Amino acid sequence: MRVAVAGGTGLVGRLVVEELTAAGREPVVLARSRGVDLLTGAGADTALAGVDTVIDVSNTTTMSGRKSVAFFERAGRTLLDAGARAGVRHHLALSIVGIDRVGLGYYQGKLRQEELVKAGPTPWTVLRATQFHEFAQQTLDRMPGPLAVVPRMRTRPVAAREVAQCLVRLASAPAQGMAPELAGPRAEQLTDMVRRLLRARGERRLLLPLTLPGATGRAMTGDGLLPAGAGPWGGQTFEEWLAAHPTPQG
């Protein structure tokens, strides 16, 4: 079975490709470096020829609602339209737990992506997952310098590898609409995760916790980003992930 992975060179995408290969599937990477532009559609029809399933883990780095919606609107339509022309039978998209409860700009784009998938011509599955363990590292790396301004956020982080494994399992099954939400085994506070990561790195940076104003901040520090259902849960804790990913000591 040929499975296309949109965003197959990114954090989760690379893991999805590895898991597909290990499962005996033939992954087809959709990325600009592989000749496929999800915003213009260039190369999409050729890449999707003979593809049975599309796994969309494409992403953009922005906190702007306008830019996020524009990206996921164009990329989503490109994939769905090209998939319909190619006869794709299952469209699977990775989304985020709590995007309908927390009003961040980036989440507006993910909600638009979900809307397009649900209204599209192809049988679909959407998997909402919580933030990855790597999110603490991504938060730090976006703010080089002596200060680390970190939003207060309560989450239940999950291993990116476990998300990839779940996506591959879902891709091998019939489309099911909204899949059960996937989260990690333990609730964590993002500021604590970043503090532990700094310690593991041996970095001396001043960490400044930030509570976002209004309803968004209340949802982020409360239960807004936690799963509403009863699983499934990933197995790897953040501490276990940290121990398995050694970082250079300063």
State the helical fraction.
Answer: 25-40%
- Oligomeric state of the chains present here: single chain
Q: What is the number of strand segments?
A: 10
**Element string (H = helix, E = strand):** EHEHEHEHEHEEHEEHEHH
Strand order of the largest sheet: 2-1-3-4-5-8
The CATH homologous superfamily = NAD(P)-binding Rossmann-like Domain
Helix- and strand-based class?
alpha/beta
pLDDT < 50 runs, ≥5 residues: none
**Rg computed from alpha carbons, rounded to a whole number of angstroms:** 18 Å
Q: Quick one: overall form?
A: globular
**Overall pLDDT metric:** 94
Q: Which range does the strand content fall in?
A: 15-25%
**Total number of distinct structural domains:** 1
Largest sheet composition: 6 strands, parallel
The top-level CATH class is Alpha Beta
Q: Give the name of the CATH architecture.
A: 3-Layer(aba) Sandwich
Question: If you consult CATH, what is the topology?
Answer: Rossmann fold
Q: How many helices? A: 9
Distance between the termini: 46 Å
